[in-house]
Design brief:
With about 400 residues, the protein is mainly β. Among the domains are: about 170 residues, no CATH class; about 80 residues, no CATH class. It has 5 helices and 23 strands. The strands form 4 sheets. It has a 15-stranded mixed beta sheet that branches. Helix 1 crosses helix 2. It is globular. The two termini are about 35 Å apart.
Length: about 400
């Protein structure tokens, strides 16, 4: 099964591989661990507060990476510009809104709290090539029917060549067993049915960002044209497309060096078992430690032009007259007899009802006299796993 591994995770693995000489599967030991700075920095032609993420590699038995705090981060342009960054919630954000300008050479500098100084190569903005169109069409992929999201782009100057894509998808969720009412207990164990505090709990909007590396190249083509390049495939039975679906696709025009860097990272994410691979050696980016050449640093300072397109579609527009996907969970109704207090109804009597309610395992759906019908929160209250705030871009 193909794995999707985040860029940060792949960078961590590359560092581990580079300092371990053993090629036996799973022979990696923590005593070979060597800390290194991990840099994620992309400067684009978007006018915004740009971000730089600094973390440290972590041991195999650890699950979370450590944020590099207290660093001084700057981006210099050879036009005399200097952009300062400040640390906010573990991410370094530029103090000003700015954008990369064509023809200006930029470099990233980092001074960490331990006195190490890092500097990137000079990088320039790549060709600004608009993302012309995003399409959604029904296709069959490896025997699975679904929706393919595809990108189309064209550079008449034939100078772009290398492309990277990311996306942010948002889809509408409608819980199947919703009630405008809620159930509560008084201090005297009396059951009260009243209106919900927040009535907007039936429809929500879930947003997910891409976490895999999506690359395209036109280097072997006669013209610099991206035609129906598959950015994402969604199986027809996936609930995310059951109602209304939207996707924002971003196209980055990469330099050859940055494209090659991402291509190597992608080769790890596509591996069936990354930890069993032969040692690939250390993958160098374009950042070096100036005061200690032996200090390893992972990552790249990437200066790339970006453009984006958003599309919307409803399920029936792609699959007219076909059955809708099932909801994202089974939504069986569990009934409780609130008049029963004895051992014979320990699983579905009053105390079980109260326990499931108080623990948040079940929410109210309906009632008939002393019988109360309850469902899992995922089936009756979308705010337990999603957001009921309608996105500003929603149509």
């Amino acid at each position: 099964m193909k794995k999707n591994i985040s860029i940060k995770s792949i960078l961590q693995l590359l560092m581990i591989f580079s300092i371990v000489s053993c090629t036996e599967p799973y022979a990696l030991q923590s005593n070979t661990y060597e800390s290194a700075l991990v840099v994620e920095a992309v400067l684009t032609n978007e006018a915004k507060q740009h971000e730089v993420k600094l973390t440290k590699t972590y041991r195999l038995e650890e699950n979370e990476n450590e944020v590099e705090t207290g660093a001084v981060v700057k981006i210099y342009g050879d036009d005399g510009s200097v952009q300062d960054f400040e640390e906010i919630d573990g991410i370094y954000k530029s103090t000003n809104i700015f954008q990369a300008i064509a023809g200006v050479k930029y470099k990233l500098t980092i001074e960490t709290s331990n006195g190490n100084n890092y500097v990137s190569n000079l990088e320039t903005l790549t060709t600004v090539t608009p993302l012309e169109e995003i399409t959604a069409s029904a296709v069959t992929n490896n025997g699975v029917r679904g929706v393919e999201i595809a990108a189309n782009s064209y550079d008449p100057l034939n100078t772009s060549k290398y492309y990277r894509y990311t996306y942010e998808e948002t889809y509408k969720v409608i819980v199947p067993r919703w009630s405008p009412n809620k159930l509560t207990f008084t201090s005297d164990n009396e059951i009260i049915i009243s209106l919900r505090d927040d009535p907007q709990t039936r429809t929500c909007y879930t947003t997910n960002k891409s976490n895999n590396i999506i690359l395209a190249s036109t280097i072997e083509m006669t013209e610099d044209r991206v035609t129906n390049f598959p950015v994402k495939f969604i199986p027809q039975n996936n609930y995310s497309i059951a109602n209304r679906y939207s996707i924002l696709v971003k196209q980055y025009v990469e330099s050859f060096n940055s494209y090659n860097f991402y291509r190597i990272l992608k080769s790890f994410s596509n591996s069936e078992n990354v930890l069993s691979q032969i040692q690939p050696g250390f993958i160098y980016g374009n950042i070096q430690c100036t005061n200690n050449p032996n200090e390893k640093v992972i990552g790249i300072f990437n200066v790339a032009s970006v453009s984006s397109k958003r599309i919307f579609f409803n399920y029936e527009e792609i699959f007219p007259g076909e059955l809708f996907p099932d909801y994202l969970d089974t939504c069986d109704i569990k009934e409780f007899d609130s008049s029963c207090f004895g051992p014979s109804c320990a699983a579905n009597g009053f105390y079980s009802l109260k326990s499931n309610y108080m623990s948040g395992k079940l929410v109210y759906y309906a009632s008939e006299g002393v019988i109360f019908k309850m469902v899992k929160p995922v089936c009756g209250d979308c705010t337990t796993f999603s957001s009921n705030v309608i996105p500003a871009f929603w149509e």
